[in-house]
Design brief:
The structure is a homodimer.
Chain A (H helix, E strand, L loop, with lengths): L12 E3 L10 H9 L3 E2 L1 E5 L6 E5 L2 E6 L2 E8 L3 H9 L1 E6 L5 H10 L10 E4 L5 E4 L3 E12 L3 E13 L5 E4 L2 E4 L1
Antiparallel strand pairs in A: 2-12, 3-4, 3-7, 5-6, 6-11, 7-10, 8-9, 10-11, 12-13
Chain lengths: 178, 178
């Protein structure tokens, strides 16, 4: 697959370096962000032996028109490269009980072994689909914002599958279940 | 205050319209996004009689270097205009028991009456500070990405105040407490 976005409708984007004085240090930043409860998700791209995935919590609903969400991924990562080269990604919002999958995709095992845990199938697009997730969605890439350390990927939702009522959340450096 | 970012280091940003065929309809999108648990926060800007604020859940940690977070705000809103004109925003991650504040800033009352509930003070910057929030942070505006319906505001953290261990979360169209 090669479906990089080609038509361009560039949004205005500006970034200025934060003032070196006055911003929080790493520990202060980490403590503040630990308070921000976030859904534990696995973002994935590619298909077959080329699948890659990563646990992410920086995910946000963007707009119903067009139906889009946003996910932040480390810029220098296999996942970011796969999303760009294949033109899409899938997202599994994990359910309570899927902590082990979250750990695997957060780096507990190497990339090749991550999909061994959990019932992984494929969306019609070929992208990875995790059965048993609270909710799984499939997205085509609708936009990319490249920031210094991260890429913000805007995905247009082309598939959605509900698996359960609960949610696995990351908060104060621990998993919590809803 | 007038501290709009001036130095420009434009990140590459591309946006293509989602394919009209195949994307989820509004109901399907809303159902999928209802599954995405998110911290309930009040984003605010301005000071004194010029304060404005809005309940938001599309908030994500961005990068420790520089220490930044991202918040998505409806583009055509008083809050977006205030953030742009004042060059910053504050964010209160709400605690369990602050559902009424969340409702007020989600539109239950007009803009002028929202700050009547809760113990609002001011950061040294002048921006609104909600005492009793799980965590409150103060941000200077480090970047803006303008998408068709929303602005993504990148804030550099210049202040942080911890108020408690819990968190108020929005999930499946209801408040839940951690």
């Amino acid at each position: 697959m090669s479906r990089k976005p080609s038509g361009v409708n560039a949004p205005a984007a500006r970034l200025v370096p934060a003032s070196p004085q006055g911003v929080l240090d790493h520990a202060g930043f980490a403590d503040a962000m630990a308070a921000l409860a976030g859904a534990v998700c696995v973002a994935a791209a590619g298909d077959g032996a080329e699948r890659v995935g990563r646990t992410v919590t920086a995910v946000a609903s963007l707009s119903p028109e067009p139906p889009t969400l946003l996910v932040s991924v480390t810029r220098d990562s296999a996942l970011a490269r796969a999303i760009l080269s294949t033109g899409g990604f899938s997202l599994a919002m994990l359910a309570p009980g899927q902590e082990e999958i979250a750990d695997l995709f957060a780096g507990k095992r190497g990339a090749a072994e991550r999909f061994a845990e959990g019932r992984w199938r494929a969306w019609p697009s070929g992208r990875p689909l995790l059965l048993g997730a609270a909710q799984a969605v499939d997205c085509t890439l609708a936009g990319v914002v490249e920031l210094p350390t991260h890429c913000l990927f805007v995905g247009a939702l082309v598939g959605s599958l509900r698996g359960g009522d609960g949610a696995l959340v990351w908060h104060r450096r621990a998993y919590k279940s809803l």
